[in-house]
Amino acid sequence: MHPVTNVHYMVLSVALLLVGTIGVLTRRNIVIILMSIELILNAVNINLVAFSHHFGDVHGQVFAIFVIAVAAAETTVALGILIALFRNKETVLADEVDLLKW
Fold first, then answer.
1. Is 0.85 surpassed by the pTM of this model?
2. Does 1 reside within a domain?
3. Per the structure, how many domains does the chain have?
4. How many angstroms separate the CA atoms of 37 and 95, rounded?
5. Partners of 93 in the beta sheet?
6. Is position 97 within any domain?
7. Which CATH number fits the domain that encloses residue 52?
8. Residue 65 and residue 49: Cα distance in Å, rounded?
9. d(Cα 93, Cα 58) in Å, to the nearest integer?
């Protein structure tokens, strides 16, 4: 049985980062874009926890907790804005959002 090393965590993190970045850049639905941003933040958290474990320090894990808290707050605010946007424009497509255009 092979142990799980930091290389495995890095490969998983790169895969999540790649999927999240592709989702942000190619999708038009704002909900999908928000989920892709969450994937990117989770990739960062995996790196933080893996290196924290590797170096025997808890600072990376504590910082990962803060990233999770910020991600939860970001999701809450973004979904509130998205609901208001849907009520006004009846769409959640990023291309059709032009409320800030003059």
1. yes
2. no
3. 1
4. 18
5. 29
6. no
7. 1.10.287.3510
8. 10
9. 41
